Amino acid sequence: MDLPPRAKRSNVFMDAHLNLGEPLSAKQVVRIRDISAGGARIQGKSPGVGVRIVVTRGETDMPGRVVWTADRHFGMEFDEPVDVDAVLKAVPPKSPDRPVYAAALTSGLAHFQRYTPRGRATSFGQRLAGVAR
């Protein structure tokens, strides 16, 4: 039995919003791990096989249904073919629940060192190895 050729898939790591297709349902941030014109593999909590969902990235809504689920990933089949290039170029969603890392908060600041009463150099409260006293 010959199967039709599988659509070209793009391996990606992109944030998107997921909702259950209801106007007032809460959106959650998920990651698209690979995508083709016919479907995508999503990293995030699966709503369950057969559930209708809408994944949104930028201005592109991708309605479809969950066709498989495994661990922290699930696969969705789109209702209609998606323009993969438009999804790849779309602006990622802004979400207040994303973690903020200390490096992002301190970038652009001068390195801070202070000397304790014992003469040891510290940086943000940590001892620096190899600093002369």
Radius of gyration: 23 Å
Task: Describe the strand arrangement of the main beta sheet, using strand numbers.
Answer: 1-2-3-6-5-4
Biggest sheet: strands, sense, closure?
6 strands, antiparallel, barrel
Please, how many helices? 2
* Element-level helix/strand string: EEEEEEHHEEE
Strand content: 35-45%
Instruction: Enumerate the spans where pLDDT stays under 50 for 5 or more consecutive residues.
Output: none
- How far is the N terminus from the C terminus? 77 Å
- General form: globular
Approximately how much helix is present in the residues?
Answer: under 10%
Mean pLDDT: 76
Q: Tell how many strands the DSSP assignment holds.
A: 9
Q: Which structural category fits the helices and strands?
A: mainly beta
Topology:
Elements: E1 10-19, E2 28-35, E3 39-43, E4 52-57, E5 60-70, E6 73-78, H1 84-89, H2 102-106, E7 114-115, E8 121-123, E9 126-127
Antiparallel strand pairs: 1-2, 1-4, 2-3, 3-6, 4-5, 5-6, 7-8, 8-9
What are its keywords?
133 residues, six-stranded antiparallel beta barrel, three-stranded antiparallel beta sheet, 2 helices, mainly beta
What does this structure look like?
- This protein has 133 residues and is mainly beta.
- 8% of the residues lie in helices and 40% in strands.
- It has two helices and nine strands; from the N terminus they run E-E-E-E-E-E-H-H-E-E-E.
- The chain has helices at 84-89, 102-106, and strands at 10-19, 28-35, 39-43, 52-57, 60-70, 73-78, 114-115, 121-123, 126-127.
- It has a six-stranded antiparallel barrel with strand order 1-2-3-6-5-4. Strands 7-8-9 form a three-stranded antiparallel sheet, with no helix packed on it.
- The chain starts with 9 loop residues before the first strand and ends in a 6-residue tail after the last strand.
- The model has no long low-confidence stretch (mean pLDDT 76).
